Amino acid sequence: MKKVIYLSVISVIAFFAFVAMIIFLAIEGESRMGYGIFLCGVGIFAIFVCPLLRLIFRLRIPSYIDIYIILLVLFAFIAGEIFRLYDMTEFFDKGLHFANGLAITAIAFSITPLIGVKNASPLFVAIFAFSFSMMWGVVWELLEFGIDLAFDTNMQRWQDDPSTQTSQGSGVLDTMFDQFAHLVGALIVAIIGGIIYKKYPEGKRFLCERLPKNK
Description:
Order of helices and strands: HHHEHHHHHE
Oligomer: single chain
Largest sheet: 2 strands, antiparallel
Shape: globular
């Protein structure tokens, strides 16, 4: 019960943080207002992803997944993009990608019961978790690329080199370092998670599962 209360409080705080940011951007009326409001809208939607999945598909989803999603959108969108922490320090961007590699790989371990992976070898589960995490890393970079095209923004740092501002050429280096940071985080959790899975394959506390239907 306490976990539900804590999670609800965190979700409410995050929701009002995004709403407050939308109001702030609307009042300021800066050139990036539409882009910022779009990110806040995505953030608000992300808060309700896990609750909707629980309701629609009758799933038990560990609360740490909700917390990860909320922290991701807060750090990546509000802190990183709107308040420009990405531009202030390179470590913020790479640290976030490293943390994503850790978290997404852990989430991949937790969803194995939902995809019918039972009695699989720890090596197979670890490889699946690592591959799933790296796929998410690629999808994230594609999302950054698409937003840069749609809003003429600089998520992939393609505007950092004046000689390539029309071709996104300088964004390749940023993308590759992002992927490498994600890979390191994913590899760490895949190895540790594989060892833990071998010893405690029934660690249901950290696993998603389908709830029985009401009769």
